[in-house]
Amino acid sequence: xxxxxxxxxxxxxKIKGDLDNDMIIDTFDAAMLMQLIINHADTTDKxxxxxxxxxxxxxxxxxxxxxxxx
Length: 70
What we know:
Elements: H1 27-38, H2 57-69
């Protein structure tokens, strides 16, 4: 069909836990999350890997378990 098309490009993935936006949840993401927690940095919903409403070491633990089980 002819017509106008709009292409939207996003520089951030929506995958929970993919903090470095490479479309893969891996140890780099877990390390980034640990640094955010240690530094008391602002976090997003993507950081709440275990979906309990709080970003803490339990999210890192859940992420590492997920990575190992892949």
